[in-house]
Amino acid sequence: MINAPAMRRFVIALLLAASMIGIGFAALSVALHGKEQAEIDYRRANDERTAIASRLSRAQQDEPEIRRALAQYENLRKQGVIGPERRLEWAEALTRERAQRKLSQLEFEVAPQRMLSTATPELPLQASTMTLRAQLWHEGDLLRLLADLRGIRSATVLPRRCTLDRGTDAAADGAPVSAVCELDWITLGTPGPHTP
């Protein structure tokens, strides 16, 4: 038979062994849960890394095109197509045209700038309508004048309408054709942020 002190030690040892087994199972459970969480975190980080690598790859592929577009944008900005209008430059060009074409009369009025109906914040197209009045030697002068105006780099010149009148009486200076034209001088304002 087992004596009482030995039985007490046996029960204490048994309780300690049971508690150690319980602590071991608890530690194992915590470790397994930690492992599962670590695997989830690893997969999430790996997915993020893959997504970032994919975006980086697309950005690297798009880089040459973006550099070309930025260079073209900067070139257009320097020419004055993008940004504020250059009305003084336009007036000087018309004065040069008058002298070059030896036109006795070349007058113009520029209406206030307006946004075009097709404009968006990313593409703020603006137009100023110019009414142009000229006395011409013949109709071909008007065609050459319009072609030269299209060559002005700080705007896109879009003729809207022209009226030619070959009067029966020549003007005082002898120019037999009078022309009245409406032209839109189209520029691009500074684009706003892109909203996808």
What does this entry look like structurally?
The chain has 196 residues and is an alpha+beta fold. The protein has 2 domains: 1-79; 87-188, Ribosomal protein S6/Translation elongation factor EF1B (Alpha-Beta Plaits). Helices cover 53% and strands 22% of the residues. The protein contains 3 helices and 5 strands, in the order H-H-E-E-E-H-E-E. The chain has helices spanning 4-79, 87-101, 139-150, and strands at 105-110, 114-115, 125-136, 156-166, 177-188. Strands 1, 2, 3, 4 and 5 form a 5-stranded antiparallel sheet that branches. Helix 2 runs antiparallel to helix 3. The radius of gyration is 41 Å and the shape is rod-shaped. The protein starts with a helix and ends in an 8-residue tail after the last strand. 9% of the residues are buried. The model has no long low-confidence stretch (mean pLDDT 83).
